Structure formats: structure tokens, C-alpha cells
TrEMBL record:
<feature type="domain" description="NADP-dependent oxidoreductase">
    <location>
        <begin position="18"/>
        <end position="314"/>
    </location>
</feature>
<dbReference type="Pfam" id="PF00248">
    <property type="entry name" value="Aldo_ket_red"/>
</dbReference>
<dbReference type="InterPro" id="IPR020471">
    <property type="entry name" value="AKR"/>
</dbReference>
<dbReference type="InterPro" id="IPR023210">
    <property type="entry name" value="NADP_OxRdtase_dom"/>
</dbReference>
<dbReference type="GO" id="GO:0016491">
    <property type="term" value="F:oxidoreductase activity"/>
</dbReference>
<protein>
    <submittedName>
        <fullName>Predicted oxidoreductase</fullName>
    </submittedName>
</protein>
<dbReference type="GO" id="GO:0005829">
    <property type="term" value="C:cytosol"/>
</dbReference>
<dbReference type="InterPro" id="IPR036812">
    <property type="entry name" value="NAD(P)_OxRdtase_dom_sf"/>
</dbReference>
<dbReference type="InterPro" id="IPR050523">
    <property type="entry name" value="AKR_Detox_Biosynth"/>
</dbReference>
Length: 317
């Protein structure tokens, strides 16, 4: 494993690499052999943080959810768990385990651990908000998993800032294990998190772990006005951005910085995001080693002030 700087997840003892490998493609656009190659190369490149969810890849016809966890579990069984590897999964969207009721959270956690072949998982997320379940019930259920040794730390994903604050306050009032990180939608083209979530994270010591940091592939630079069609399940959404003047300004800025530094546009986009306040690690997925190679340089890529300013200005809402 290559030596890289590791960052803490909030005030926890978990330390992670700047690039978090997303497992949403495992069992979807990456079959098991390709997934194993990506996982091998990620670890060899200094990666220490793998993210998945129990609902991956239930959206594929014939799949029932848990396929990504199963692939990762088989890889761990075959390769052995690398030292320092942090594994995260989520609950709330699996077809058989929807929502954040206490019974559902406990059952889903055990099902995930079975698929992963683990006795405990490092980070367990509430994948979505569940307004039908009292927050205290959900917060207590997650805390009980920590007490039982099934989960080391707790995270929240797709929760509004006011709901995150309420969850944290319940934990403080009831003496429960509190979330240490939040996974928001955040990128050069989606900066809404800066309005309320980033200040909340700074106030409460939360780490941010953005997803869609490449805007569904648009910020890789492979989508161009008048360019060839891109073979990707997300091509429709990414191609639509070619009609957005702000998106094109960002693309031009990425081209400038990437050319100056001699790295891929994707690495530049993720490096900008990795250096935003409270961000500990940025998620990105790769269907194969070739895609991953463009991402790995973010582990050590630190943008100069002029490059950062150019991207920040170009992406201003």
C-alpha cells in the first residue's frame, strides 16, 4: 500500500484517505472480476476507505439489493482485509429493509455484516431521512449497534441540516453515540451544502464526505459540446449539463488547471472538493482500473491558490 496522508472522521478514531472508493458500481457496471481489479488497484494506490450500501444494486432488474456488499465480502475473503481499511455501508433504501425503525436498522445491519463477512462495520450510515420514524428511535437504534460492537461509528446521508442538528441534540441529551460524519451531494456544480450544512459541520465537529463529486461524470471532461456520445448509464443526466453556461465555465476552468498540472480533470474536480472546509474524503467510483487511475492522484494532489480561486469563481452559483 502506498503511503498517503489520512484524515480523521470528525472526532472519531477513524482515519481515511482523501479518495473514498464508491461501491455503487460493483454488481452493476463492474462485474466481480472488474470489481476485484478496481479494489486491488485502489488499495495499492493508498486507498483506505470503501463505501457501499445495502441497497446497491437493487435498481437492476433481477437484483434484490446487497450485490455490492456481497462482491466486497468475497474480495475481503479472497484477499484478506488490508491493514487500516475503513468500510462503510448504509441502511434505509434496501427493498426489504426500508426506513429507519429500530427493528429495521438492527435487522439490516446484521444482513449487511453477513454479506460483507464481517463481525462489525467501521461506519454505518442512515442512508435517507425517515420522517415516519421518530428521530429518537432511530438515533437509539444506531447507538445500540455501537454498544453491541456491530458498528464502530455512525454517519448520516441525505439529511437536511435541521434534521442532522436534531439527531445530534437527541444524542447529547440522551447520552447516545452520535454521528461523526455526513454524506451530502456536493461538487463544483452543486454547492448548496455551503449554505447551512458546512457551517453546521464546522460548529459540531462533523466530517463531510461528499458524493456525486464528479456530477455524474460530467466533471471528468469526457462530455463536450458536439462531442461523441458517452457510453454510460448516467450519460443522459451528464449530457444535459452541456446546455448550462455555468457548467461549461467550470469545464473550461478544469481544462485550464488540469493542463497546467498535467493531471486528469476528474482529479482536479475532486481535489478542489477535498480541500473545502470540513471535507475529510470525497467519494468516486470506477468501473475499471483505467477510470480509477485518473482518480488516484487526488490522494496527494493539492491545488495551488490560483487554481483553487479559478475553480471557485467559475463554479459560483
Amino acid at each position: 500500500m502506498t503511503d498517503v496522508d489520512l484524515r480523521p472522521l470528525g472526532d472519531s478514531d477513524l482515519r481515511v484517505s482523501r479518495l473514498c472508493l464508491g461501491g455503487n458500481v460493483f454488481g452493476w457496471t463492474a462485474d466481480e472480476p472488474a470489481s476485484f481489479r478496481v479494489l486491488d488497484d485502489y488499495v495499492a494506490g493508498g486507498g483506505t476507505f470503501i463505501d457501499t450500501a445495502d441497497s446497491y444494486t437493487a435498481w437492476i432488474e433481477g437484483n434484490s439489493g446487497g450485490e455490492s456488499e456481497t462482491v466486497i465480502g468475497r474480495w475481503l475473503a479472497d484477499r484478506g482485509r488490508p491493514e487500516g481499511l475503513v468500510l462503510a455501508t448504509k441502511v434505509g433504501r434496501h427493498p426489504g429493509f426500508r426506513g429507519l425503525s429500530a427493528a429495521n436498522v438492527h435487522a439490516a445491519a446484521r444482513a449487511s455484516l453477513d454479506r460483507l463477512g464481517l463481525e462489525s462495520v467501521d461506519l454505518y450510515y442512515a442512508h435517507i431521512d425517515d420522517p415516519e420514524t421518530p428521530l429518537e428511535e432511530s438515533a437509539r437504534a444506531f447507538s445500540e449497534l455501537v454498544d453491541a460492537g456491530l458498528v464502530r461509528r455512525i454517519g448520516l446521508s441525505n439529511h437536511a441540516p435541521e434534521r442532522i442538528r436534531a439527531w445530534l441534540d437527541i444524542c447529547a441529551d440522551r447520552g447516545l453515540h452520535a454521528p461523526v460524519c455526513v454524506q451530502p451531494h456536493y461538487s463544483l456544480l452543486e454547492r448548496g451544502a455551503e449554505d447551512a450544512l458546512v457551517p453546521l459541520a464546522q460548529e459540531r465537529g462533523l466530517a463531510l464526505l461528499p458524493y456525486f463529486g464528479l456530477a455524474r461524470g460530467f466533471l471528468t471532461g469526457k462530455y463536450r459540446p458536439g462531442g461523441p456520445a458517452v457510453d454510460s448509464p448516467r450519460a443522459g443526466g451528464a449530457s444535459a449539463l452541456l446546455e448550462d453556461a455555468r457548467a461549461l465555465r467550470v469545464l473550461d476552468a478544469l481544462d485550464t488547471v488540469a493542463g497546467r498540472l498535467g493531471v486528469a480533470q476528474a482529479a482536479v474536480a475532486l481535489a478542489w472538493l477535498a480541500d473545502r472546509p470540513s471535507v475529510a474524503s470525497v467519494l468516486a467510483s470506477a468501473r475499471g482500473p483505467e477510470q480509477l487511475a485518473d482518480l488516484l492522484s487526488v490522494q496527494s494532489l493539492v491545488l495551488d491558490p490560483d487554481s483553487t480561486a479559478l475553480l471557485t469563481e467559475a463554479s459560483a452559483p
